[in-house]
Q: What sequence folds into this?
C-alpha cells in the first residue's frame, strides 16, 4: 500500500507538471485545429509518457492489493 501511495503522488505530480493543451471545453468550439494540432515536445512529451506509465502501474498495483485483501 505504501508503494501504491508513492506511485499515486508521482502520478499527481506528473499530471500537474504538464502544460495546458487547450482552453478546456471552450477550445472545442474554435475548431479542430485548436484542440488537435498541438504536439507534445520536450518535457511535455516526457511527462505525457511518464503519466501513462504511472497510471498503468497505479492500476496494476491497486488490482493486486484488492486481490490480496479478498
A:
Amino acid at each position: 500500500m505504501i508503494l501504491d501511495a508513492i506511485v499515486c503522488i508521482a502520478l499527481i505530480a506528473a499530471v500537474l507538471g504538464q502544460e495546458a493543451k487547450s482552453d478546456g471545453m471552450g477550445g472545442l468550439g474554435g475548431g479542430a485545429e485548436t484542440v488537435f494540432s498541438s504536439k507534445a515536445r520536450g518535457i511535455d512529451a516526457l511527462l505525457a509518457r511518464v503519466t501513462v506509465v504511472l497510471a498503468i502501474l497505479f492500476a496494476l498495483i491497486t488490482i493486486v492489493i484488492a486481490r490480496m485483501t479478498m
User: Anything to note?
Assistant: Confidence is low (pLDDT under 50) at residues 32-37. The radius of gyration is 16 Å.
